[in-house]
Amino acid sequence: MARLLAFFLVALMLLQTLGQEVLVLDYHLNKARITELYCVNKARPQLNCNGKCHLAKQLRKADGADKKAPAGPLAKVKFEVLPTVPFALRPPGRWRQPARRYALPPAAHYAAVAGPGVFRPPLLLA
């Protein structure tokens, strides 16, 4: 069920994104029917319109619908106040001890004290 919903939503997004391409594809698949029903230049076959005028009208209408914008930036902004439920984040029950506020400082190593390994820092003479 989740896959079907995902495919459906992807198809809707693609149709919205590729709207003009879908109109052109529909025109090429149904060119004869569009020429019969919608062509305004049937009387002048030398123009070879073949329904391109109808396609141009559809593309202009689709382009105009995409470019419609609200009058102002906040013309259609709607603010809603939703009721809130008090919510507290509590640690799980396995945390018995409270966490320390700050980590313990690392043990200080001085040059005079031999440290582990091969590296020996130089002595500081004051």
TrEMBL record:
Superkingdom of the source?
Bacteria
This protein's name: Uncharacterized protein
